[in-house]
Amino acid sequence: MIQLKSAVIGAGFVGRAHIEALRRLGVPIMGLLGSSPERGEATRALLRLPRAYRSLQELAEDPEVHVVHICTPNHLHFEQASVLLRAGKHVMCEKPLAMDSRQSAALLELAQSSQRVGGVTYNLRYYPLCQEARALIRQGAIGEPRLVHGGFLQDWLSHARQSGRSMRRSCHGDIARSSQWVPISETARSSPPNCGSNLQFESDDIDDSGRTHLRRLSWGPQ
Asked: Which residues contact 164 (CB under 8 A, 6 or more apart)?
């Protein structure tokens, strides 16, 4: 069996969390791509990684790398995942997978045609408290849930340069995704503070970002 070797794109908080997780799992990390060559090299030295890539293309062309973790701002995910899948890499992408359902559908098709596996880091569902909540709801502990109310307590989505038009949709998509997983009844209302107006959605009538978030964990070949 081939030992998968990895690389990470993104030298910030989330990228470092992925690097730590990969190390704990015993997955070799061949290198890192930062937002600039200088930042990438600084992080490489700090975290004692073998290599700092200077461009996405350089990373895509590295034959030693089998899977790449994308830990970058939302609007970069589609382009980076597309390049890597075409280069024959497996991809683990931070959520959201893309900016709308057209992009996520294109990535799904690309993963299937290239026979590579793609994943989205829906990590919250594996937390013990979330697992317990899901089990209790499935057992009927609170009856049939009809209302979901949540908040997204991070401010980075408010920076248009980094998140584009995804601020409100990312908030709603995260809550919609979690609600579908719990699960709730077919129709629910989400009203997260600081995320714009309320969004009414049904299981087959969710906005583009909601559909992007609700894609399966593995969006490549099974």
From this structure: 74, 75, 99
Burial of 175 (0-12, 13-18, 19+ CB in 10 A): buried
Average pLDDT value over all residues in the chain: 78
Residue 32 amino acid letter: L
Residue 143: which region, alpha, beta or left (left: phi > 0; alpha: psi -120 to 50)?
left
Q: Are residues 10 and 116 in the same domain?
A: yes
Identify whether 50 is preceded by a cis peptide bond (ω within 30 of 0).
no
Residues 20 and 95 in one domain: yes
For residues 18 and 4, give the distance between their C-alpha atoms in angstroms, rounded to a whole number: 15
| Domain end marker among 105, 120, 135 | 120
Residues 6+ apart with CB under 8 A from 77: 70, 93, 94, 96, 97, 98, 99
Average pLDDT over residues 125-145: 88
Q: Give bridge partners of residue 92 from the DSSP assignment.
A: 69, 119
The whole-number average pLDDT for the span 206-210 is 35
